[in-house]
Amino acid sequence: MFLKTTLFIFIIIVLIPAVSFCQGAGDEDIPEGMELIEVGTVKLVVPEEAQVKQVAGLIIVESIDQYVARAISRMKELLEKMELKYQGLENNFKKLEEEVEGLRKEKNASSK
């Protein structure tokens, strides 16, 4: 009886904290597009780049409406930058076409 009690106490004292430690050390499954952040001692899974505030002990994650509005605004800015780059590339391409056409005309004129 004493041996069983000692063994039981040993299991509780040694194995349960070890199991708890191993569970905390493992990688959590985080869905794509989400990230794990730590605010104080609290871990949260939130959308990537979501704004998180801590006010008077409360952890406030921005609403989905705010997140989507901010994401769309960033996408619009990125699209505008891409359009400007595209226009610049298009202008460069037109200049190259004109130069090639000019070189062809010079070659044809010199060969006659």
Q: How does the SSE layout of this entry go?
A:
Blueprint: H1 2-25, E1 34-39, E2 42-47, E3 52-55, E4 58-61, H2 64-111
Antiparallel strand pairs: 1-2, 3-4
Spatial strand order of the main sheet: 1-2
SSE string: HEEEEH
Average predicted confidence as pLDDT: 83
Alpha-beta classification:
alpha+beta
Spans where pLDDT lies below 50 across 5 or more residues: none
Please report which band the strand proportion falls in: under 5%, 5-15%, 15-25%, 25-35%, 35-45% or over 45%: 15-25%
Shape: elongated
Radius of gyration: 32 Å
Helix content: 55-70%
Task: Tell how many strands the DSSP assignment holds.
Answer: 4
General description of the model:
With 112 residues, the protein is an alpha+beta fold. It is 64% helix and 18% strand. It is built from 2 helices and 4 strands; from the N terminus they run αββββα. The strands form 2 sheets. A two-stranded antiparallel sheet has the order 1-2. Strands 3-4 form a two-stranded antiparallel sheet. Strand 3 (52-55) and strand 4 form a beta hairpin. The protein is elongated and about 115 Å long.
Structure, briefly:
It is built from two helices and four strands. With 112 residues, the protein is of the alpha+beta class.
What are the defining features of this structure?
two-stranded antiparallel ribbon, 112 residues, alpha+beta, 2 helices, two-stranded antiparallel sheet, 4 strands
